[in-house]
């Protein structure tokens, strides 16, 4: 039995399939409670299983996304949805078209704005106008980033441009097998913005994440591992991991 002193939630599942089902259950429950929910979804490889479950449930009529609003979590500076390296395009193809999210209910990051600071503030205001995100779903970067809040990101950081670390550039390049150029800058929803969400779901699978997940959950919270800040959310944070990702966690953890 895992016990702890902080009051966030940790659930460990046998494998990534079971973790994906559990993550999809959280999304389903949020939308059942509030069909007009505002949600952010991560890109990357981790959420693909959850996307499949959600798409299957939508196809069977078990979950209705028709009134849901989606806020993009992160995007590379200067790319458009037509570009092959667009994370928005990735999310569009991997999930949004499959669950019937229409463009009018998708907020995209203003990565081609002339004044990115003002545009990022407007993006924040759009989230605030919705009363904050009802659910922020996040993956865990190999260097502890969430969205593209790279190491050094503070707990009160807001939607902004950020320089990507060499490690993140290598990770991103691998998604496209090195076939497309990855811009050195991205825009990401900030940690502080994420922390204001009504619910935060951190989904982590695979043994490659075991070390960084342990640092995120068990070391003192620090900008060195931005995901650690999520623990500030207390009971509003749910961490869903598979056994491989959880394999370095102590039997006693802070949550
Ligand atoms: C990516 C994205 C994040 C994602 C994380 C983990 O680069 N910027 O939003 O959650 O890194 O990616 P993966 O699931 O592929 O390990």
Characterize the structure shown.
The protein has a single domain, classed as Rossmann fold, CATH 3.40.50. The mean pLDDT is 95. The strands form 2 sheets. The chain has a 7-stranded parallel beta sheet, with helices on one face. Helix 1 packs across helix 2 and helix 2 packs parallel to helix 3. The chain is an alpha/beta fold. Strand 2, helix 2 and strand 3 form a beta-alpha-beta unit. It is built from 7 helices and 10 strands. It is globular and about 50 Å long. 2-amino-2-deoxy-6-O-phosphono-alpha-D-glucopyranose (GLP) binds next to helix 5. The site of 2-amino-2-deoxy-6-O-phosphono-alpha-D-glucopyranose has 14 residues, from helix 5.
Topology:
Layout: E1 9-13, H1 16-33, E2 38-41, H2 48-59, E3 69-72, E4 74-76, H3 87-99, E5 106-107, H4 116-129, E6 135-138, E7 160-163, H5 166-175, E8 185-188, H6 191-195, E9 200-204, H7 210-218, E10 237-242
Parallel strand pairs: 1-10, 2-3, 2-6, 3-5, 6-9, 9-10
Antiparallel strand pairs: 4-8, 7-8
Helix pairs in contact: 1-2, 2-3
Bound molecules: 2-amino-2-deoxy-6-O-phosphono-alpha-D-glucopyranose (GLP).
The site of 2-amino-2-deoxy-6-O-phosphono-alpha-D-glucopyranose (GLP) has 14 residues, from helix 5.
């Amino acid at each position: 039995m895992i016990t702890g002193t902080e009051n966030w939630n940790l659930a460990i599942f046998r494998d990534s399939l079971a973790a994906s089902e559990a993550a999809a259950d959280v999304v389903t429950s949020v939308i059942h409670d509030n069909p007009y929910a505002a949600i952010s979804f991560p890109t990357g490889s981790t959420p693909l299983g959850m996307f499949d479950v959600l798409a299957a449930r939508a196809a069977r009529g078990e979950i209705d996304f028709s009134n849901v609003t989606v806020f993009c979590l992160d995007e590379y500076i200067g790319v458009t949805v037509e570009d092959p390296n667009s994370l928005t395009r990735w999310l569009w193809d991997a999930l949004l078209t499959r669950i019937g999210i229409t463009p009018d209910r998708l907020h995209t990051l203003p990565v081609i704005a002339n004044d990115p600071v003002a545009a990022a503030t407007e993006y924040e205001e759009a989230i605030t106008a919705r009363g904050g995100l009802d659910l922020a779903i996040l993956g865990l970067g190999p260097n502890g980033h969430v969205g593209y809040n790279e190491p050094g990101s503070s707990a009160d950081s807001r939607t902004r441009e950020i320089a990507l670390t060499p490690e993140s550039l290598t990770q991103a390049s691998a998604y496209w097998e090195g076939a497309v150029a990855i811009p050195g800058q991205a825009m990401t929803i900030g940690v502080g913005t994420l922390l204001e969400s009504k619910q935060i779901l951190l989904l982590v699978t695979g043994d490659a994440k075991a070390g960084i997940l342990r640092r995120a959950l068990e070391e003192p919270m620090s900008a060195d591992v931005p995901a650690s800040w999520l623990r500030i959310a207390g009971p509003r944070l749910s961490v869903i991991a598979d056994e491989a990702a959880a394999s370095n966690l102590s039997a006693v953890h802070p949550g």
